[in-house]
Amino acid sequence: MKYAGVIVDLSGGRLDKVFTYRIPPALREQIAVGMQVEVPFGQGNRQIDAYVIELADTCSYDDSQIKEISCVSQKGVAVESQLIQLAGWMKEEYGSSMLQALKTVLPVRKSVSPLRRRRVRLCLEGAERDRFLAALSPKRQAGQLRLLTALSKEGELAYETVTGKLHIAPSTLRALETKGVIAVEEENPYRNPINGLKQNEQATVLNLDQKQIVEAVCADDKSGVHGTYLIRGVTGSGKTEVYMAILAHVLASGRQAIVLIPEIALTYQTVMRFYRRFGDKVSILNSRLSQGERYDQFIRAKKGEIQIMVGPRSALFTPFTHLGLIIIDEEHEGSYKSEQSPRYHAVRVARKRAAMAGASVVLGSATPSVDSFYRCQRGEYRLFTLNRRAVKEAQLPAVEIVDLRKELEAGNKSILSRRLAELLKDRLQKGEQSLLFLNRRGYAGFLSCRSCGKAVKCPHCDVSLTLHRGGRMICHYCGHEEAVPRRCPSCGSGYIAGFGIGTQKVEAMVAEQFPGARILRMDADTTAAKGGHEAILSAFADEQADILIGTQMIVKGHDFPKVTLAGILAADLSLHGSSYESSERTFQLLTQAAGRAGRGKLAGQVVIQTYSPEHYSIQMAASQNYEGFYQEELPYRQMLHYPPVYAMMTLLFSSKDEQAAWRAARAVENLVDRYIGRFRKAGRKEPEMIGPCDAPVSKISDIYRKTLYIKHMDRRVLITIKNGLESLAPWEEERAGVSVQYDMQ
Ligand code: ADP
Ligand code: ZN
Ligand code: ZN
Question: What is the 446 CA–ligand 3 centroid distance (Å)?
């Protein structure tokens, strides 16, 4: 390669400013993407540092105008080099522009003033706190009692939660603050929230199973083997304790670690466990941080001020200079896949980054992804299993499956089966709590015509409008809103009626069947307000309600010791999705939902209602049998050539002009056909193609979407095809006005 594109400013703002330099012949063998070089810059040809982000053989400028790279920087390999190299890999693997990839991996400096946030903290501890609480009159000082009870559980709360959900007047807060009972503090997102409380708490004594995992991973690490490890263990089996022991080992050797946790599971309790154990060495990234604050955290990491970064997907790009370990908890979670270009998966990118840095990767889950388990079977990952809950008293719940078809036969039209209704009644009588779980908001009540059978659709998107309270119909893709029509828009018939059930409807029906019950509902509507999520969960944990109704949000990472019954209302809704992963997602959701009951001292019961009681996803979730599920699922993936057995590339063509989208898709179809022909001639295993066809959602906001799937055993074949397509030329004409996205699985 004769030319190199370099960037000189890495702080995000000017990442798109690429300068071309000639590579002197002596350096041509050596220069690679990510490398730090010195170049003459500007009028005075001042020598400055630059990073190589692309290489080319030709150049569109006059060669005599181009300056030459002076030398490779002697400063040693900067972590930025590694991150840029990683960006180059992501661009290649996932099909994005280099700029998009760079923006993903390099922290962006933005000078925005931090949002003003206040927290309310309890200043009393132990006996002092108990005395103060006991002295409060439940009648006259109900507000104070409510606040202090919540605070003794949480330690501290957001100011908005206190004044909003808890309805505490600012005057009450001031009075308590004057007395020194609470403190209202400006939140400093970097502040260790347990300053002053005990830190570096004693490590838990690990049981034998846990110890074996820690010893195996650490022994590998000491001998320079940096593998990928998967810990399969039910929630509560002690995975987090294992992570912390391995973290301690890595920190002791002067290296750093990244811990990925899905945003939804980044609860106060989880975060506190890391702070208690590692104190100031930990920093947390979450969506409440502004861009500028995130940048500051990354700078602190680079300077060595922190050793552990805990956060969701993007924490993966923390610029640690001596990275020794990446932990990914709940590794099966969908949120580890980016929905923006580059559409990367955190587990794969973590393995790549770890390989570059000489670090190990530890994955953990109760229901590992089929992909990860498959890699264990093939020896790519090492598998460890934690079969029992670490604390004995917590028992696994008893699960029953109810066939909804039989309910209808018996004349029961309620959404609650007779069995579930009976158990709910029992819990209400005993004063115990229940969870009712409805998977997928998208299936919530839509309107359909009884005469022609058509559902009322969004005029801009290929989805049904969802019925909301107050007679409004809303599109969950583009936000389009309209009143409920009197007549069917397709055939004019007056027989249109609600179909399917949403959380609102469930709430109304349960309230009707159990008039005395206190019910809370948690879904995307009730949690839309900031902090709505936490407010509902803490109200339920405070036993302000008997029944919590919700979507997948309620099954993640929360412990309610008083919940002894979980009802899954329609287990098969997510089975009929259009993705090859529907069964896997269903199994994971049901297993986790079932695991919600009986987390405390009381034994739990679970009822799974379904129209497909014989489906293996439902059967295996009911018996919490992960391997049983895997044994059923893998042959199906093998037979139909789906990941993880095959690699799959999905191309999405979108355009305002439907014909243009078709033309682009067909052009690619023809090009891929040529590849297939070439493979056939050479006697090699050919790539397989499905489509082009409408995407599962064929229109969003008036943009038409077509899709094409290409599969092959060897991922590199797909990457070659993608690179061929990206080099525009063969289908430049058909491509105009069409956006093309690649998704690699
Ligand atoms: P997971 O991450 O698998 O959900 P945790 O590590 O959170 O499991 O452990 C669940 C509970 O059991 C926690 O309260 C933890 O402190 C406790 N625990 C874990 N391991 C032990 C152990 N070896 N001895 C005592 N308690 C333990
Ligand atoms: Zn719409
Ligand atoms: Zn009709």
Answer: 14
Which atom of ligand 1 is closest in space to residue 233's alpha carbon? 3
Query: Ligand 1: which of 213, 241, 332 to mutate, judged by most atoms within 8 Å of the beta carbon?
Result: 241
Spacing, Cα 702 to ligand 2 middle (Å): 8
Let me know: does 1 contact 9? Beta carbons within 8 Å: no
Radius of gyration of the chain measured on its C-alpha atoms:
28
What are the DSSP calls for 165-222, one per residue? TT---HHHHHHHHHTTSEEEEE--TTS-TTTTS--SPPPPPP-HHHHHHHHHHHHHHH
Residue 629 has pLDDT above 90, yes or no: yes
Cα–Cα distance between 653 and 705 in angstroms, integer?
Answer: 6
Reported as a pLDDT band with limits 50, 70 and 90, residue 201 is low
Residue nearest to atom 21 of ligand 1 (CA): 390
How do residues 68-85 score in pLDDT, each as one tens digit? 999 888 776 778 889 999
For ligand 1, say whether the CB of 307 is within 6 Å of any of its atoms: no
pLDDT band at residue 501, thresholds of 50, 70 and 90?
low
Q: Give residue 157's pLDDT band: very low, low, confident or very high (50, 70, 90).
A: confident
In one letter, which amino acid is 218?
Answer: C
Q: What mean pLDDT comes out for the span 381-406?
A: 83
- Indicate if ligand 1 lies below 6 Å from the C-beta of 237: yes
**Are the CB atoms for 587 and 296 separated by under 8 Å?**
no
